[in-house]
Design goal:
96 residues; alpha+beta; two-stranded antiparallel sheet; 3 helices
């Protein structure tokens, strides 16, 4: 795949999965041995559970990609995440 195709997959993942809650899309584009560094997330099923918990706590969750760069099969991005804490999240009560 080209770097532009890789960037498009990353963009589409963030639009479909965290933004729209289409967790099934993760099955199409995330490797079974996925690792999310910085979070205790391993594998696509655990990723979907993690994102579902974010969307439960932040029902208006929005990931906005500010910039993407790609080289070979690596895509990096700078992004902003916003949302309203409307449900319990990691022991933190809703704050609105």
């Amino acid at each position: 795949m080209s770097t532009e195709q890789n960037k498009e997959i990353v963009r589409r993942f963030h639009e479909e999965v965290p933004n729209k809650g289409n967790l099934a899309f993760a099955d199409e584009v995330v490797a079974a041995d996925f690792v999310w560094h910085g979070f205790p997330v391993r594998g696509v099923e655990m990723l979907k559970q993690h994102i579902a918990s974010f969307r439960t706590a932040f029902p208006d969750l929005k990931v906005t990609i500010e910039r993407q760069v790609a080289e070979g099969d690596i895509v990096a991005m700078r992004y902003t995440v916003s949302g309203t804490l409307a449900g319990d999240w990691w022991g933190i009560a809703p704050t609105g």
